[in-house]
Amino acid sequence: MVRLARAVGAVVALLSGVLAGWVLWSPLGSDARDATSNLPAILAADGAGVACAAVIAVAVTSALARRRSIALTTVVGAAGPMLLALPELIRYPADSAVFMYSNAVAAGLVLGAAAPLASRQLSAQASLAAGMIGAFMLAEAVEGQRYWSEARGWTAYASLTEWDPGAVLPSWIPITTAVLVIVGSLLDRRTSWTTRLDRRLLLLVAALPVVAFAVNWLLVDGGAPPTAWFVYAAVVVAVVAWSAWRLPGPDGRILFAGTAVLAAALGGAPSSTTEPWILAISAALIAAGTALGLRFPMPMLGFGLLALVAAAVLLTQEPWDAVPVVGFIFVLPAAAAFVVSSCLPTSAPASTVGLSLPFTIAIPAAVSAAWVTGSRYGDYAPAPLFHWPEAVPTGAAVVSVAVVVVCGVGAWGLDLRSGLR
After folding, report:
1. What is the rounded CA–CA span in Å between residue 103 and residue 256?
2. Rounded Cα distance, 383 and 266, in Å
3. C-alpha to C-alpha distance for 45 and 25, rounded to whole angstroms
4. What is the Cα–Cα distance from 202 to 212, expressed in whole angstroms?
5. So where are the chain's domains?
């Protein structure tokens, strides 16, 4: 029975991570990337939904961790996936903001309840991280395949007034997740999760996604020069570092890990391609990286690999021009999963914050401003959105590497403080 409970817990965590990560990647999904809303543009942009989901996730995790009620956690954990499946059961209004914020609330509930449930066992925590990293790396490619599939035909070009909101993922996935959450709670009724998060720090990390989105919007919409984006990147990393050091023990390493993964994805990600075999390999590498990080936790090795991937974008001349592609396809997925699973925290709120960081603070946009500032922030559906750039500015690559190095040094310092080295 114990093995069954652990297996169900790991599956629930994996599915919850995929669901939450998918919505954090883009609360509107590919079917509504051009949909309209009556709200002001800044409130109807996908980034606003991402920030909303992240704030709700942190608040829900903190509340559930303090309440320590398995029944309440189960209700919240099942309600989130069912809310994601709701567009398949009832007709949503045509205003895209209704659909977006509904998904954002659902993702916040899913991640907010999954973090304390997963923190009861290390394998479930690793599964949650794998699901989030998998969605972060691969969601764009999968959504692109679905959106432009031949089955859509002319509907891919249908007018916006004909848009009919649908679930961001097939409804059987969130429904199955909700059922397994209930089954898992019946098999394992422990409330052995920990809170360990200062209220003032909680307010800061909850406000960070909102402030990051607002600043991104202002900088992109205003056509800010790259120097302004570099300053933004430096300030965000400083805030992340301060928050990480305020967490007890080594828990802050997960914040450094999430930030480093985001910075290393500067030049691209496996999601930049739609080749099925590449996506399959990337998914397998994420699973392998998670398992290795769980079995042999070596955060510095993971940070080192991420730094190499970030620096590889500078190799644009023959015969080294294929190195960045190899790095993004084969090294980045494994290294990202490895470093995150090597830095898993003991506190449920810390897990929620760290796993949501790659979706919320937009460091790729900050350090790659040379090619993103040509369009308004509101024109981008996913957050963040990856493309294969023709050339990565040297300054952007240097900032990306610097962010990874700073995160690695910060995590190493936390290890020293905690007596792990």
Report:
1. 27
2. 13
3. 12
4. 16
5. 1-147+161-372+387-418
Cα separation, 244 vs 264, in Å, equals 19
Residues 192-247: tens digit of each pLDDT: 666 666 677 777 778 888 888 888 777 776 676 767 777 888 888 898 898 888 88
Tell me the torsion sign for CA atoms 45, 265, 310, 268.
Answer: negative
- Choosing among 3.30.300, 1.20.1250, 3.40.50, 3.30.2250, the CATH entry for 1-147+161-372+387-418 is 1.20.1250
CA–CA gap between residue 200 and residue 304 (Å, rounded): 32
Residue 322's CB is within 10 A of a number of other CB atoms, namely 10
For 120, which DSSP code?
A: T
DSSP class of residue 194 equals B
**pLDDT 10s digits, 151-200:** 454 444 444 445 566 677 888 999 999 999 999 988 888 776 666 666 77
**In angstroms, how far is CA 180 from the centroid of its own chain?**
22
Q: What is the widest separation between alpha-carbon atoms in the chain?
A: 61
Tokens of 188: 């394992």
Residue 407 amino acid letter: C
Q: Which two tokens stand for residue 190?
A: 């422990």
**H/E stretch holding 308:** helix 299-311
